[in-house]
Amino acid sequence: MTTETFWNDIYRRGSPTTSGRPGLALAQFAGPLSPGSALELGCGKGDDAVWLARQGWTVTAVDVSTVALSLATGNAEAAGVAERVRFEAHDLATSFPTGTFGLVAASFLHSPQDWPRAEALIRAAGAVAPGGHLLLVEHASRAPWSWSAEDTRLPTAEETLEAMRLSPDAWRIRCLCPIARLATGPDSQTATVTDNVIFLQRTE
Ligand SMILES: C[S@@+](CC[C@H](N)C(=O)[O-])C[C@H]1O[C@@H](n2cnc3c(N)ncnc32)[C@H](O)[C@@H]1O
Predict the structure, then answer these.
(1) Which of 153, 164, 188, 189 has the greatest number of CB atoms lying within 10 Å of its CB?
(2) Where do the domains of the chain lie, and which CATH numbers do they carry?
(3) Residue 173 CA to its chain's centroid (Å)
(4) Backbone CA torsion sign across 56, 62, 170, 197
(5) How many angstroms separate the alpha carbon of residue 41 from the centre of ligand 1?
(6) Is 91 in the pocket of ligand 1 (CB under 6 A)?
């Protein structure tokens, strides 16, 4: 099964509606930034892209799933921000959007397929303009309804940072921390989970 097929199946089975809310960490860490151009990787149904557009960002939002992108396009149109969000289909294992951005964000860019995730994150860092920010939000614990296998080991924030091999001279660490959040599952069930936040500013 390809990455696209896997995620298209997930999005076809799920609800087409969205929470209409941004991720907790995105709102917390990107909220205070001055809007400019943003790149979102693994945008899913587009809640974060819509929120960024509402804050004044011009957004390029990327996903491998054409089903997700179609739902996200509908959500951006319904929110009245379609002209501020450009959706692009990419399998980040093999292709990456062009350009540099004031903010590059990826929330829960996980996939069960064996794929060069660290390489994609290195490219994500390379797409941050000088002075801009990189925000990665990752699962540090697994919700009971997660698709990911229980024995899958989730990297720590430090391991993810290390895998990106960034020059310490060129980046300022603004947060490398876990945050707890109440997550809602596909059947409206809830559980407290922990996410890792890697929030960096490119200094040169
Ligand atoms: C767990 S979901 C997170 C969605 C959204 N960011 C959120 O916070 O709700 C992971 C997303 O990453 C996308 N994705 C996974 N692997 C990808 C890849 N290789 N290239 C592009 N997108 C990918 C999936 O299609 C899915 O939308």
Answers:
(1) 164
(2) 38-140+161-166 (3.40.50.150)
(3) 18
(4) positive
(5) 7
(6) yes
